[in-house]
Specification:
five-stranded mixed β-sheet; globular; single chain; alpha+beta; 2 domains; about 300 residues; Phosphoribosyl-aminoimidazole Synthetase, Chain A, domain 2; 60s Ribosomal Protein L30, Chain: A
Amino acid sequence: MSGMDTKDDAGYVPFGGGLLLQSVDFFTPIVDDPYRFGQIAAANALSDIYAMGGIPLTAMNLVGFPCSLDLGILREILAGGQSKIEESEARLCGGHSIQDEEPKYGLSVTGFVEEDRVVRNAGAKLGDVLVLTKPLGMGILTTAVKRDILSEPDIDEALEAAAHLNKGAAAAMRELPVSAATDVTGFGFLGHLSEMLEASDAGAVVRRSAVPVWEQAVSLSAEGCYPGGLNGNRDYLGDKVSSDGLKASDLLPLFDPQTSGGLLIAIPSEHAGTLVRRLEERGAPAAAIVGEVEEGSGVRVEP
């Protein structure tokens, strides 16, 4: 077993009465503050383990760094990552670095999930409710910072959410009979939802008004400020997404590539209220019911 057949968030092999999970992720800085960059990159890498209901066990640093930069910057990046590794209760087991023209940082993470608690991105059932645990729009906001439309302090709340571990959301998910889950990252909300639906042989309806989006991201995207990856996600999904009664700009945040986004969880409707309460108790940046799983294929987005 590997998880490749349904595009699960982490690879896995049977081990000790459960599954040993393995994932890796790293990227270039999305903020100027090296400590915060390290936090966000580490939270993002750990998220794949949480998306499968797992617990991180070990992490290894992956670093690309230019010789021209002060090593104090690298120390801050690694310190930020270490703070999130410690928060996850995983153990740092070294890592590997190379000289690179642009800084890059992330983690290779190993985790574990018991066989009866594993959550895959396949398994969403008709009538399941869809719950999202972080607002969308991070790619739009960081693009605005790069274009000097906003400053980092202007998007501080969103950056805090990006650095927020999905640990509490995974713990809430482990307590309930969740059907399927995934984390929302580079393919955007609609891209990752589409993968879940394809793996589950189902469709879904999403209510745009229920989807949490960072307020500034709505107007910015409508004015054409968004990353190139958003267009790529929209083009790739093509006719898998339809909408009724919405402007094209209304859908832009739902295509936006996220860095360290939240979990997207499918759960039977009778347990949805309990999940939302437990997410709120554990400090999730959002705990929103955004739609339902239905017959058919693809995603219908309604007002």
